[in-house]
Design the sequence.
């Protein structure tokens, strides 16, 4: 079975971007990455300061939903959502493109 | 130097999602992936049908901007923007997390 991809875009005031990266890192390290079905994740900070985006691979949508029901990361995520808005997305890969220089 | 990451989220009517994937694939195959500094890209379709997201790595922001000035992919991108809205983002990696099962 193909993994599901979560691409979650957080919009934030640039003054709060570093704090948001810290909160999402804590939530991931203390809880999310230990959940069944978690495969990998990369956290990105936008160069303009206004966004933070988590790109994560999960074994299945069910594994991801089960993690979301776990209260452990809640304090970090609650604080994150006080300083940011959140646009979630659940995807499958449509195409991959390699570069001549890759 | 670290690569820059482009995460571009397109919002689309579910009936047009397949066409949007085709247009972005054509634009990438015919032009974008041959541009200097292109490293790799993955195109994603959301499971709810409402989004298509391109995740791409470029050697530098300058290489990406130079590609955007190239008119070759314009017809595909113009048609894409007739059926979708586009939220661009330029990022650097903040953190990577590996799963125990990865």
Sequence:
């Amino acid at each position: 079975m193909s993994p599901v991809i979560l691409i979650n875009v957080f919009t934030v005031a640039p003054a709060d971007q570093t704090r948001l990266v810290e909160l999402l890192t804590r939530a991931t390290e203390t809880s999310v990455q230990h959940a069944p079905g978690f495969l990998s994740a990369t956290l990105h900070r936008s160069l303009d300061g206004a966004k933070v985006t988590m790109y994560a691979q999960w074994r299945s949508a069910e594994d991801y939903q089960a993690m979301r029901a776990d209260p452990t990361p809640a304090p970090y995520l609650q604080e994150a959502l006080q300083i940011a808005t959140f646009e979630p997305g659940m995807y499958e890969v449509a195409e991959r493109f390699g570069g001549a220089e890759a």
